[in-house]
User: Fold these one by one.
Assistant:
Number 1:
Amino acid sequence: MSKVLVTGGAGFIGSNLVDRLIEDNDQVVVVDDLSMGLKSNLQTSSHLKFYEHSITDHEFIKNLLMTEDFDYIYLLAAVASVADSVARPYETHQINQEANIFILEIIRKKKLQVKKILYTSSAAVYGNVQDLPKYETSLVDPLTPYAIDKFATERFVIDYGKLYDIPTVAVRFFNVYGPRQNPKSPYSGVLSLVTQSVLHRSTFTIFGDGEQTRDYVYIQDVIQALYLLTKESDVVHQVFNVGAGTHTSLNQVIQTYESITQRELKVVHKKERPGDIRNSFANIDKLRKIGYQPRFDIADGLKEYWKSF
Ligand code: UD1
């Protein structure tokens, strides 16, 4: 049984991770200010302690780290919306970068012994560079406050780890989808929006011709990756792409969904979203080398997702 801290544990990815940790009998502490996450995403369990709190509260974070003896720390709390980061660059920075560095700083100063700290970055760091697939060594071009903070923090986490001998690792998520992805915002992941339209038989808007592709990766594969990266003690001070390693167009997604649900999706086309990238997908060889095998292709992932409603 391990003691695990998940910041942002009430969010889409965090809460799915928490479920898996509890299943494995771990003792889990979640810190989440519920700005994006939902309390209802969390199960009630004697294995779970929940603090509705911002990670930017230094006193709180310091006390928490000093009183609990965490084996593993997953840093998922973030302003997850790129648009939000553009509207509130300074606040985003406090949360997406500064608060995470503060956690590292407490661990360094107080010489806290952790088995692994995992930071969650994003494929957004690659920006608009069109060489595909994206390797971890590909050029980065972070274009928004969100992407800049993600990239800078990822570097901090890795180099802090190297400099002060703290076992850290970072991941770059591609387009994660699955149960609990919040479809409420217009900036939600497209698959949660498509799902809502199929569910409510409402019209779905395709920006552009629908031929744009993404590396859609199902939440359970993401959890698999997070597990491998924390449990493999030799894997430190590196960054890993987390994707399915394939790319699928929006039109293909819709076709697949229609055949799974036997429902026809009404679509309208609007102009391409400004700044949208055309194609994106991950090279995941580095992750495969430590044992990762994506188990859900787009059809399997959508089937699972659909079953959750
Ligand atoms: C993701 C981020 C985006 C960021 C980009 C940078 C999310 C939800 N989006 O965008 O903020 O700038 O990475 O890497 O995290 N689409 C539609 N109809 C819709 C919604 C989306 O056609 O209602 C299209 C989009 O125009 C896009 C594709 O679907 O071409 C995927 O959109 P999205 O899920 O937002 O992902 P990214 O474009 O990868």
Number 2:
Amino acid sequence: MNEPFLSAKPIIQKLEEQSFEAYFVGGSVRDYLLNRSIADVDIATSATPEEVKSIFPVTVDTGIEHGTVLVIYNGKGYEVTTFRTETEYIDHRRPETVKFIRSLTEDLKRRDFTMNAIAMNIHGEIIDPFHGRLALQNRMIECVGNANERFQEDALRMMRAIRFVSQLNFSLENETKIAIKANAQLLQHIAVERIFQECTKLFQGKNKNQAIQFLYECNLWNYLPELKNHQDLLPCFQKWEINHLSEKQVWLLLLFLSKTNNPTGFLKSWRMPTKKISYLSKALFFLHKRLKEEWTIYSHYQATKEISIDVESVYQMIQNQSGENIEQKISEIFLSMPIQKPEEMKVTGADLMLWFDRPGGPWIKRALEMIEKAILQKKVSNEKGAIKGWILTCNLQQEKDC
Ligand code: ATP
Ligand code: MG
């Protein structure tokens, strides 16, 4: 056993000292068995939340109604969750209330996929009543119990299945796949925010092409915001290998393929955070520009380095070009620029008002833009004195390029 399990081991030991059972469970055990890096360990225990709180001096009630207590130990937080069953599923969503139990097997039984229903004790011994290790060996995503019932209980599990396809490069076990197809319409009951989270993980995964193929095959695509109106995109994903694209680049590609003229509206219906919406709307603008013309130093500068890289990566892919070393090439272009963003200019609107002895107004913006371009074209160096000398010779009224 290695980190992060080793640091969490004393928590399980303390619970065991008090005669409770406790195990590592869920994603951390799955990823450990797959030799993947592990973000956080989850601990499941027979102790109730109150019992957990009485054992550890510092805890936080992060999700106590679901049985989860955050135990702070050695300056780090560990989620400790009481064994539980989820009985009352209403509207195909996970229940608000749960029932605490003392049986590990029952707790593992309520989990979504066999690979996520494996427990490990502090000696590294595996408890695997639903043959999750076999599923891991076969690289299969398979429901615990009856797939049809499991998706009817909680429809989000269908999206989780497909994002694991992308993240782990796994396939869908046949019965699981058939059940997703049969229940796809239940996705309507799930909050868009949660679907968005799963799609984000899907787009971050390494097997996006296969996952998107499954979204189509299983009819889930029909229930995704905005994309439901785009049944025609599948051939694109069969034609283009998108596995190397970043998550943001996939969103940019989707915006482009959807032909939307309202990217903000498109992304808002996904409940995407506003900052990301602005970023992607700007990137879409530059992608359209790129399709019409080559980059210039000024357009790279306006776009920013990050957007330039994202736009060029998507552009090269839709043009069926190799797209090699895009990041390196664009980074070099930015390194060669005298300034990379407006804040780096050594002149402000206040300087201009002083030099020209004029009150503020739209002319300031125009003048700053002229200076910006001149600096980028290396007509003038980015020094106050040089800029002053240069701008005073310009005819600002006529917006003449000096
Ligand atoms: P990730 O690596 O993305 O965190 P994960 O499998 O750990 O993947 P979590 O959302 O952290 O996913 O959930 C932890 C565990 O809780 C899962 O491994 C699974 O056992 C269980 N679980 C999570 N969501 C569900 C669900 N909708 N239905 C049943 N069990 C679930
Ligand atoms: Mg997890």
